[in-house]
Amino acid sequence: MLTDPEASNQTAASGSDRSVGSTAPATDLAARLRQAIDGRTARVGVIGLGYVGLPLIELFVGARFPVLGFDIDPVKVDHLQAGRSYIGHIESRRIAEMRECGRFEATVDFSRLVEADAILICVPTPLGAHREPDLSAVIGTGRAIGRYLRPGQLVVLESTKNVRNQRLAASMKASFLYSIG
Ligand SMILES: NC(=O)c1ccc[n+]([C@@H]2O[C@H](COP(=O)([O-])OP(=O)(O)OC[C@H]3O[C@@H](n4cnc5c(N)ncnc54)[C@H](O)[C@@H]3O)[C@@H](O)[C@H]2O)c1
């Protein structure tokens, strides 16, 4: 539940206009997103609440953006919702503060991706036996979220690995076509 009235108001009116249809020109969609980012009303969605995702959320909440965190692990989501950390260098007090200020919520419900204006994918890309990146979580995420994306959303893939390969590109294209097309 949102507890900060200022944040609640911000959330209610937040983001670029989600009623914008797929017929709006890409330049209009980009301008609306830019405006929402400048005004701190853009809602940030972070997928994968681990060593990269959680600190990123901390940064965005600190910069006064409303943030929705997504993970497939319901235990992690429950911890965060209850204001508890499971990452050593992030204190539970910080998570509790983010929850109390009303700008952070965690969920396993990926249909809520429609609420996000910018989506950062922070799922694992471990190296395989031959040091090739294992892209199964990224590809799985692409498949899982494709149906919930809408025109005008910014989607960013966070990875230190070289993920520019054809299999991933094909999967991303199939999943994100609606968003980027
Ligand atoms: N850890 C680092 O120091 C570091 C630094 C820079 C970049 N990266 C990159 O960031 C990415 C994330 O790494 P990390 O260390 O945060 O991983 P992590 O294992 O700490 O966290 C990943 C999270 O994603 C969740 N997850 C897994 N599959 C998912 C799915 N299909 N949908 C939603 N959530 C899913 C897991 O439950 C977990 O909470 C990787 O691509 C990695 O290359 C990591």
In short:
Helices cover about 40% and strands about 10% of the residues.
Can you tell me the CATH superfamily? Answer: NAD(P)-binding Rossmann-like Domain
Tell me about the largest β-sheet.
5 strands, parallel
Q: Regarding CATH, which class?
A: Alpha Beta
- How many strand units? 5
In what range is the share of β-strand residues?
5-15%
Ligands in the structure? nicotinamide-adenine-dinucleotide
Number of helices: 7
How many domain units? 1
- Poorly predicted spans: 1-14, 176-181
Give the helix/strand class: alpha/beta
Anisotropy-based shape: globular
Mean pLDDT reading: 82
What's the end-to-end separation, in Å?
35 Å
The helix content, as a percent range, equals 40-55%
Q: Rg from C-alpha positions?
A: 16 Å
CATH domain topology: Rossmann fold
CATH architecture: 3-Layer(aba) Sandwich
The largest sheet has its strands arranged as 3-2-1-4-5
Outline the fold blueprint.
Layout: H1 5-12, H2 26-38, E1 44-47, H3 53-62, E2 67-70, H4 74-81, H5 92-100, E3 104-107, E4 118-121, H6 136-146, E5 154-157, H7 166-180
The structure holds nicotinamide-adenine-dinucleotide (NAD).
The site of nicotinamide-adenine-dinucleotide (NAD) has 23 residues, from helix 6.
Structure write-up:
The chain is about 40% helix and about 10% strand. It is α/β, with parallel strands linked by helices and about 180 residues long. The protein has a single domain (about 5-180), classed as Rossmann fold. A 5-stranded parallel sheet has the order 3-2-1-4-5. Strand 4, helix 6 (about 135-145) and strand 5 form a beta-alpha-beta unit. Helix 6 runs parallel beside helix 7. Residues about 1-15 and about 175-180 have low confidence and may be disordered. The structure holds nicotinamide-adenine-dinucleotide. Nicotinamide-adenine-dinucleotide binds near residues 49 and 70.
